[in-house]
Amino acid sequence: MFNLTTIEIDAFYLTLKVAFFSVAICLPLGVITAFTLSRLNFPGKWLLDGLVHLPLVMPPVVVGYMLLLLLGRRGVLGSWLYDTFDITVAFTWKGAAIASAVMAFPLMVRAVRLSLDTMDRGLEVAARTLGASRIIVFLAITMPLSLPGILTGTILAFARSLGEFGATITFVSNIPGETQTIPLALYNFTQIPGDQTPAIRLLIISVIIAFAALIASDLLAKKVKNRLGTKSETEQ
Amino acid sequence: MISAQFVVKRDEFLMDIKLDMPSDGATVLFGPSGSGKTTFINVLSGIIKPTSGIIRFGKDTFFDSENNINIPIEKRGIGYVFQDGRLFPHMSVEENLDFGNRRSAENKSSKEEIIELLGLEKLLKRKPSTLSGGERQRTAIGRAILSCPRFLFMDEPLAALDFARKQEILPYIATLKKNLKIPIFYVSHQMEEVVRLADHLVLLENGKILDHGEIFDVINSPSLALLLGKDDKTSLINCQVGKKQDNDGLSKLIFSGGYFLVNQSNLTPLDNVRIELRAQDVAVALEKPVATSIANILEASVAKIEVSKSTHCDILLSIGNISIWARITEQSAAKLELNTGSKVFALIKSAAIKPF
Fold this sequence. Notes:
The complex is a heterodimer.
Chain A: H1 6-39, H2 45-57, H3 60-71, H4 76-85, H5 93-118, H6 121-129, H7 134-145, H8 147-163, H9 166-172, H10 182-191, H11 197-228
Helix pairs in contact in A: 1-5, 1-8, 2-5, 3-9, 5-8, 5-9, 6-7, 8-11, 10-11
Chain B: E1 2-10, E2 13-21, E3 26-30, H1 37-45, E4 52-57, E5 60-64, E6 69-70, E7 78-81, H2 93-101, H3 110-117, H4 133-146, E8 151-155, H5 163-179, E9 184-188, H6 191-197, E10 200-205, E11 208-214, H7 215-218, H8 222-228, E12 234-241, E13 251-255, E14 258-262, E15 272-278, E16 282-285, E17 296-307, E18 312-319, E19 322-329, H9 330-336, E20 343-348, E21 354-355
């Protein structure tokens, strides 16, 4: 029962790899986008806001197809990437990471933005009266104080990437060892009549990854809370 | 000289200011809530960008709408103590203090001094969430001063505190005012803070300046009486504490033209203090009383008589170079046949004189 086949081991590592790189793309871009939406005013802000949220409201398959048109070998951006840098993302694990990142992006932005919007802006002004430039204020005040939101966003993005299916299968197909993450492998196994043990093994692995992520985020959240002083420490 | 000439338009609110302020001592901005006190100092400090105008601090132009100059907050060399403290919750008290100190080039050595002056030694490792309101405000004051500002702004720093905490912090601010040689702009709607700290007073209402000038003049201005809703007259007098205590434990407070005797033992000899004297605590006699419990009997001449709507008169008495107000009933004024220039004696109980 617990002897994993190559396909399952590959799917396991690939899922973690895709989720990791998906979060790695989402995190910096998400924080910058959230900051832009929360703190800056500029014409066309509604357009950026809409674009960011698009993957949340569109069918994942549609997003995957849009990515294929855009980033496929013959796509607008894809052909340029291929001609200039010799990079192919369609039908590779990189494409899977991009598809996951696009799908997870609105979750990341929303979580970070919520925490930026509810933050006491007066603290940023106070920091500036103490001589701190805007960049220092962002790094020393805004970022640390929105850490709970950034953490929540990261967990949500990671979870979304673990479960991403529709956009991934449309954009990069279901290639064992290259783009076949756990959900895609599980889907494959359920399509084949007969022995269900491989599918159940993948199910158990999924549950374990999800639990590990939840516990890790809980521990981190406690640490962050302590640092922010929201939990009152023992009176001296 | 600090010159402010600006307009702020915001929704229903219009602020139109034209004012030159001296660049020494404490300028207190006084007025009811909604009068634009905080907006005023936020414009000076750069937190609010006025619709138009010019702001100059000495030779530096901070804002000039015509020439497109708007120096950002962090480059104005200011310190700001907010009403709510605004300590950074993720930093300890010491890290909060260091945040501004780190960025200032000058006198690093003063950190220990300021910590001692504000009594922060035992708090350095604590997080702001564990501090009391008074401790928080002391930290905020220390943080602002340690950034070595050229101008200090304080927006009702005591407003969020209860009476006891106010009494705890006010002396610190008074001491700072004496020790720091930088101009302070202080927003307040408490007369206690005004009489204690102000060198200059600006009265604001509805975004307009009602009156402004030296505290000794403005303290009795009709505009202030109107703002306060009462016409009590108060005299503020600068005095120096006498060299040693005598006269049965009474201290001498010397002013140009005489001295007051007060029953206070905590005064430091040769210190400069200010006293507040309410008009109703001053009585007038034509002849020097012989047998009396009143410790202060001063020769004075009547400079002005003001008959108010109610049944009393306010009499401005000249004693040496200073003037004090006395409030007596109309009947008394008639009985004494007081006229401008009359020679009288001012009678003041020592308990009525509050030095600070």
